[in-house]
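Lecture 7, part B: from sequences to assemblies.

Below are the input chains for today's worked example.
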Amino acid sequence: MPGHHHPHDHDHDHGPDGDISAEEMLTSIDAVDIGVRVKALEELLARKGLIDPQALDAVVDYYEHKVGPRNGARVVARAWADPAYKQRLLTDATAAIAELGFSGAQGEHMVVIENTDSVHNLVVCTLCSCYPWPVLGLPPVWYKSMPYRSRVVRDPRSVLEEFGTFLPETTEIRVWDSNSEIRYMILPRRPPGTEGLSEDALAALVTRDSMIGVSEALTPGGAA
Amino acid sequence: MNSVHDCGGDDGFGRIIPDGYDGTEPVFKSEWERRMCALFMATIVGGLFTDEDFRQSRERLEPSRYLTRSYYEQWWFAVARLMVEKGVISPAEYRAEIARMDAGTGTGAEARS
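Predicted structure of the full complex, as structure tokens:
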């Protein structure tokens, strides 16, 4: 900095205490192993009493093992088995899902869309990774990826085909872009040959991907 | 914010799923991803930042990094930036913590009494 006398001789932006900026910090430790970067942040925040490592373990265990697409499958199975429930689900999804005991963060404003013989629906979050955690758990890698987010809104039929889902040319395809408020879940078509099955047996046919809409529900004892 | 994250309709990103995809995959590919997810949940529930703060911080990741870093590494960038910008931690103490861990076995156990 010519002509400028500064108490110290750094050539970077200064934080409030003469420290480097957040951007510079991120760059300066960018090459450190990501496991170390994460662990160091956790240790630092724990030492300040801002987080509790034991509680962290419990939170992850909850989302990894106790919340997942089996919750959504139970909602779908109930809707297939009980027309009155299905009506409530399509009218006020958040309340109908809560009837089965599922609610919480990232699922405060749920909308459920029904697939029919004439209209097939799928869900994306083009801007990031919004996803209905209480019914589907944490999103799969592909849902958060650029290839899915970019292509599904422009060429959904090719995306469906990549997932092995081939629909008649006459089927209309609609894509729902999630956001931080509204989270969508698809109610797949009930497969043929499932009359009289119990809700448990129905739920076993409901895959995570069928509730995102990239595939259909499984058929009993056969291929999707 | 207008940047590479706003990718709806863009061409050229290629295939979505790997060959042999069977509809299942683990939620986390490694332990650090699990810890990063937990750290995010703990800090946002603890009120250290909001959903909007987090989204904006992630979108501020420069395009070359946004396009090449894994999902949970993007989360690290977003949370670490917010912790500094909100004055929760200082760059100096964070870098010192990392240096302590690098000097040890990588577990950081030596730095704790």
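Note for the exam: Chain B touches chain A through 67 residues (CB under 8 Å). Keep this in mind when comparing with the next example.
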